[in-house]
Amino acid sequence: LTFLGIETSCDDTAAAVVRRLSDGGALILSSVVEGQAELHAAFGGVVPEIAARAHAEKIDHAVEAALSAASVSLADLDGIAVTAGPGLIGGLLSGLMLAKGLAAATGLPMVGVNHLAGHALTPRLTDAVAYPYLMLLVSGGHCQFLAVEGPETFHRLGSTIDDAPGEAFDKIAKLLALPQPGGPHVEREAALGDLARFRFPRPLLDRPGCDLSFSGLKTAVLRARDEIIAQKGGLTVQDRRDLCAGFQAAVADVLAEKTRRALAAFPAPVIAVAGGVAANGAIRARLQAVADQAGARFLAPPLKLCTDNAAMIAWAGIERHLAGGVDDATLSVRSRWPLDAAAVPLIGSGK
Ligand code: ATP
Ligand code: FE
């Protein structure tokens, strides 16, 4: 079974071709990601109108590049998977319109995919992990623990009540005049800092359950920064490193403890991570230790497949299709689409 995947939910225009082998394994024949970071850099965040226009301009090329890199033509495909949400409506529509056009022209089945399901099913794409397993999705837009029991069966054990950790890393970088996206820069500075100098709060650790919070932590770092500036008139290189180290230690503590609780609540043989924050070495090491202690296998897919890509969408489409899922020309996009909640009103074309 060979699927084309199309992903345009945020600021990466992506297309990929993925084949499911008869033994259940997967082959990524191509995975093209055309980023837009440079278009949004000056604005300090993703601008929806700019993203929508860029997706519309890039998506045809991304799909052609993915087909040609995979050495397949449309006739070799068995289906088309497209992200239908959650995300920015304008971008999602670019991907969906192309998918509908291709499906109408070729007669191939089209399968709408939840972007979060794409992330959540990635361990099956990369490592053929069996159901059930536990997933920690930690990205710029999301932070949640998911019990993954089937291609369309997800239970949320907990999620952030405010910011996502990647967002917090980005805001800390901004506070300290480090480049965006901030995660890798904060990690680099933190490695050279003293993590004992600042003791930042560990939000929600005093409360039971797996929900998380990161916005108070960000405020605490801001206050500590302003205090140093008030005292000394500015930040030294070492101040900045120490602030990063203290911040990252707090994030790692929170994620580690909540992961321990999630594994206790849902004792799965595997805990997998996805999302850009999973790139953080210090955080990974803590999660690995928690998994070891619980007797679970810790799985961190290659970074390219942890961040936004279309291979995960193609794969999630294959899994949904094998479970009987298919959509028609009335498929619409959704800006909000929780994995485990009832459907929300549809926005966009079709209905
Ligand atoms: P989503 O996919 O949830 O809509 P997104 O596209 O912003 O959100 P990703 O592309 O998965 O998320 O990840 C990007 C985020 O990961 C950014 O916030 C970035 O700062 C963060 N990040 C990347 N590398 C690191 C790192 N080494 N340490 C911490 N955070 C990191
Ligand atoms: Fe994502």
Describe, in plain words, how this protein is organized in 3D.
α4 (115-127) crosses α11 and α6 crosses α8. A hairpin with a 4-residue loop joins β1 (2-7) and β2. The protein has eleven helices and ten strands. The chain has helices at 37-40, 48-69, 89-106, 115-127, 165-175, 183-191, 215-232, 237-265, 281-294, 303-306, 311-322; strands at 2-7, 12-20, 26-35, 79-85, 110-114, 133-138, 143-150, 153-159, 270-274, 297-299. The two termini are 30 Å apart. With 351 residues, the protein is of the alpha/beta class. Strands 3-2-1-4-5 form a five-stranded mixed β-sheet, sandwiched between helices. Strands 8-7-6-9-10 form a five-stranded mixed β-sheet, sandwiched between helices. The site of fe (iii) ion has 4 residues, from α4. It catalyses: L-threonylcarbamoyladenylate + adenosine(37) in tRNA = N(6)-L-threonylcarbamoyladenosine(37) in tRNA + AMP + H(+). It is an enzyme of class 2 (transferase). Its main location: cytoplasm. Residues 28-315 form the Gcp-like domain. Its EC number is 2.3.1.234.
